[in-house]
């Protein structure tokens, strides 16, 4: 995709208009303009919100992420403004906690997500990949790639790690859609983008679907409590954080919800965007099919290209500067990972999809700082194995219908990707 040639100006950018995020080019045009002309940009918002600083350059994003003392996560990572401390406490997951408690909660499961630990899941991931592809291709060469592969595969992996019955995985996909993509009418429970006044203020993302997920997690916890299981739920419910303070019921609820959402969303949407990019760049698909030694580099390019999370928000704890722009205490600061992943000062030809790209310093998992994605090694393994297996089975693919994107400025998601694949000879 070429860089924007539109006469769009920074003052005309509206990062709060979710309809723009259903268009293929619109978000990138806005990011391009801001990086060039207003890299730390004040974005007004509709009432009752007050506006936020949009940070769009790679270096500035990294600086914010590395300084949680100045830019805290403790007033949420989305743009919703909540001043009620009781609501904040009820809804905070590990994403919205800083300091020693965040470290203690993270360490409860961190050992299960190290590179060495994740390598032990390689056979399981490959088996689930093969089964997912077998099922998708058994119905023919034309299908919706999202429902048959992207959404199906990562949740199956997570379900095994959590020891969840296979028949329940579709519930996780549904809950994730309804919680994360509440601004999309295909998924919404009717509470819209800002639910702070509709009776669900204490629920993550203001979504009533959180209650259903909580109830499911609590039922698992009740069965696993005081056992010697090694699944993620057993470790979570029976473990004691290193600070010696046991998880409260609310902390368990929110941790469980975060595992379900984070364990699915990033990989799911990256798989979809990677497949779309390979179809739009068939020479890159053939290049990768011909040389699987490129796969580690390709995975990093998939992540950069997809940018599955558009932004996370921080809140300034004190007066500061970002890129020379003064920020006041209490200001919201949104770091736009997707924009950083197209920063011309970091990436050569950032709108060129290149499966052999070197020194790929992308921000798909955040970068540095205490909130770097816990599941990054698992996501990389899933992406590597999925495309190794897929590209052995197909020699090409093409779109056979419109690409439908999630109406969200938080999640860069594709909800429908109708494809027709060409089976590889002998496959």
From TrEMBL:
<protein>
    <submittedName>
        <fullName>Cytochrome P450</fullName>
    </submittedName>
</protein>
<dbReference type="InterPro" id="IPR002397">
    <property type="entry name" value="Cyt_P450_B"/>
</dbReference>
<comment type="similarity">
    <text>Belongs to the cytochrome P450 family.</text>
</comment>
<dbReference type="InterPro" id="IPR001128">
    <property type="entry name" value="Cyt_P450"/>
</dbReference>
<dbReference type="Pfam" id="PF00067">
    <property type="entry name" value="p450"/>
</dbReference>
<dbReference type="InterPro" id="IPR036396">
    <property type="entry name" value="Cyt_P450_sf"/>
</dbReference>
């Amino acid at each position: 995709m070429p860089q924007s040639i539109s006469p769009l100006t920074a003052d005309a950018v509206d990062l709060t208009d979710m309809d723009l995020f259903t268009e293929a080019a619109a978000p990138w045009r806005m990011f391009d303009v801001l990086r060039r002309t207003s890299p730390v940009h004040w974005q007004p918002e509709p009432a009752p919100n007050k506006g936020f600083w949009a940070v769009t350059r790679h270096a500035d994003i990294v600086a914010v992420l590395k300084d949680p003392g100045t830019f805290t996560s403790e007033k949420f990572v989305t743009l919703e403004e909540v001043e009620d401390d009781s609501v904040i406490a009820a809804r905070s997951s590990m994403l919205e906690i800083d300091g020693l408690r965040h470290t203690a909660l993270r360490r409860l499961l961190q050992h299960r997500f190290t590179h060495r630990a994740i390598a032990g899941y390689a056979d399981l991931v490959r088996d689930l990949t093969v089964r997912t592809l077998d099922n998708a291709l058994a119905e023919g060469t034309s299908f919706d790639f999202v429902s048959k592969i992207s959404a199906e595969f990562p949740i199956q992996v997570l379900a095994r790690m959590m020891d969840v019955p296979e028949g329940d995985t579709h519930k996780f996909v549904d809950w994730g859609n309804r919680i994360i993509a509440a601004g999309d009418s295909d998924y919404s429970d009717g509470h819209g983008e800002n639910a702070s006044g509709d009776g669900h203020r204490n629920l993550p993302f203001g979504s009533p679907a959180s209650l259903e997920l909580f109830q499911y997690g609590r039922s698992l916890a009740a069965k696993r409590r005081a056992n010697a299981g090694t699944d993620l739920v057993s470790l979570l419910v029976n473990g004691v954080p290193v600070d010696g303070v046991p998880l409260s019921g609310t902390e368990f609820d929110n941790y469980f919800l975060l595992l379900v959402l984070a364990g699915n969303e990033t990989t799911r949407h990256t798989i979809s965007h990677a497949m779309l990019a390979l179809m739009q760049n068939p020479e890159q698909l053939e290049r990768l099919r011909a040389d699987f030694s490129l796969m580690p580099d390709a995975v990093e390019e998939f992540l950069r290209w997809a940018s599955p999370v558009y932004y996370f928000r921080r809140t300034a704890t004190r007066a500061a500067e970002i890129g020379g722009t003064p920020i006041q205490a209490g200001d919201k600061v949104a770091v736009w990972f997707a924009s950083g992943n197209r920063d011309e000062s970091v990436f050569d030809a950032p709108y060129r999809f290149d499966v052999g790209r070197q020194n790929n310093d992308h921000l798909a998992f955040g970068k540095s700082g205490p909130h770097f994605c816990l599941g990054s090694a698992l996501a990389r393994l899933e992406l590597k194995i999925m495309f190794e297996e897929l590209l052995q089975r197909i020699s090409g693919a093409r779109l056979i219908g419109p690409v439908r994107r999630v109406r969200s400025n938080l999640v860069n998601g594709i909800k429908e990707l109708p494809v027709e694949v060409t089976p590889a000879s002998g496959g």
